[in-house]
Amino acid sequence: MKNRIELEKIDMLTDSETDIFKSCIKTLLSSSFIIRGYKNNDRLYTFAVRNFDLLESWFSYADIDLKKDEALGVIAIRSGADMRIRLSRDETCALIIIRIMYEEKRNEISLSQFPSILIFDFLQKFKAVTSLELKKTRLKEILKKLSAFSLIEIEGDPFESEAVIILYPSILFTIDSFMIDEVLGGIEAEAKKGRAKSDD
Fold first, then answer.
1. Which of 53, 69, 72 is nearest to 3 (CA)?
2. Are the C-beta atoms of residues 49 and 70 closer than 8 Å to each other?
3. Where does residue 118 rank: exposed (0-12), middle (13-18), buried (19+ CB within 10 A)?
4. From CA 66, how far away is CA 27, in angstroms rounded?
């Protein structure tokens, strides 16, 4: 009943508000996030916060949860398993490492709104955690995929170690600390098996 009442408010939106409402839905369905301060998202973010109940009701009909964190400045959708993107092992590792680095960087005093890291530092951390080296072409593919979901943005040539990865707070919505520990534990167990085989 509440959802129906909320959805009736769509007819009360002005033409310009209807356009923003549609843009909010398209943005959330295509990249999962609306982030305050990200590119041209401020107008969408302000509208989404003000009309959160309306958007939440609209998405509920597709069994998609809508999340809001005004401290981080993020609106996010959380869909069921059937709509989730499957990541490869190295993509999952990259995402976890970027999330860890976001946590480390977010507490630093900075004039910029979003923390950033160098690709060189990311690659060093990736190797330290996984004992693997990412080839440049694979690195570029992974970064492009994470960028498409508004998790990061690359400034400069991703083939250059001095290029910058801007980290967005949407990263915190992708994987929780329990999952990080679980995946890192799996990576460590795999590395131990590999070392044991080489010793044999």
1. 53
2. yes
3. middle
4. 13
Identify the DSSP state of 85.
P
- DSSP3 helix / strand / coil % (the chain, rounded to 5): 60, 10, 30
- H or E stretch including 197? helix 177-199
The rounded distance, in Å, linking the Cα atoms of 156 and 128 is: 24
Cβ(75)–Cβ(28) under 8 Å? Answer: yes
Q: Give strand ranges (E) for the chain.
A: 33-35, 65-69, 74-78, 116-118, 152-155, 164-167
Q: 């992708």: which residue's tokens?
A: 174
Exposed e or buried b per residue across 71-107, where buried means at least 16 C-beta atoms within 10 angstroms of its C-beta: ebbbbbbebeeeeeeebeebbbbbbbbbbbbbeeeee
What confidence tens digit (pLDDT) does each residue in 34-88 have? 999 988 789 999 999 999 999 999 998 888 999 999 999 999 998 766 667 788 8
Give the CA-trace dihedral at 149, 153, 132, 187, to 10 degrees: -40
State the Cα–Cα distance between residues 170 and 125, nearest whole angstrom: 21
pTM assigned to the model: 0.81
Question: Do residues 49 and 5 make contact, with C-beta atoms less than 8 angstroms apart?
Answer: no
148-194: pLDDT as tens digits: 989 999 999 988 889 999 999 999 988 766 666 666 666 666 656 65
